[in-house]
Amino acid sequence: MDVEILKKVALFDGMTSAQLRKLAAALTEVKHPINAHIFREGDSGDSMFIIADGKVRISKMVPGIGEEALAILEKGQYFGEMSLIEEGPRSADAIAHSTCTLYELSREKLDQVMFTDKELASVLLWTFVRTLSARLRETNDKIRAFFALSSFGPR
Fold first, then answer.
1. Cβ of 20: how many Cβ atoms within 10 Å?
2. What is the pLDDT of residue 69?
3. Which of 39, 59, 75, 153 makes a 20 to 30 Å CA pair with 45?
4. In this predicted model, what pLDDT tens digit does every residue of 90-106 receive, in sequence order?
């Protein structure tokens, strides 16, 4: 795998070329045709994905409405990282929005890499914390906007 792709992934900011090579060796390339489910909400998860080519739609099914797209992710973006931190079920669907090539990083392989390079582990874990914090902040803003527009908001 080309380490240059990893250099463009925000999750890996601050990592050295040697650390990126270690991570690259732990990745598995997977391809998905358009509209294929990469995973479904509720599935058990033990890996994250980096988009090497194509687009991925992250969505949830809303009862009575249907699919609600939460994000369209593109080359260099990543998803599914929550499953590397916790062992809970997937929180949304990930669907190939176009034909796509992904790099998958399993929890087992990540644990092996982090065990052998404590500095890499520290950089990566802090980046996870910042990413999850930013996503929580975005979710809070969306909830606030929803209630502001609904009849449940302050009057």
1. 19
2. 87
3. 75
4. 989 999 999 999 999 99
Number of domains in the chain: 1
Domain encompassing residue 68: 3-149
In the structure encoding, which two tokens stand for residue 82, read together? 């929550």
CATH number for 88: 2.60.120.10
| pLDDT, tens only, 76-87 | 999 998 888 888
Residue 20 CA to residue 128 CA, distance in Å, equals: 16
Long-range pairs for 125-133: beta carbons < 8 A, 24 or more residues apart: 127/10, 127/11, 127/12, 127/13, 127/14, 128/11, 128/81, 128/84, 128/85, 131/10, 131/11, 131/81, 132/82, 132/85
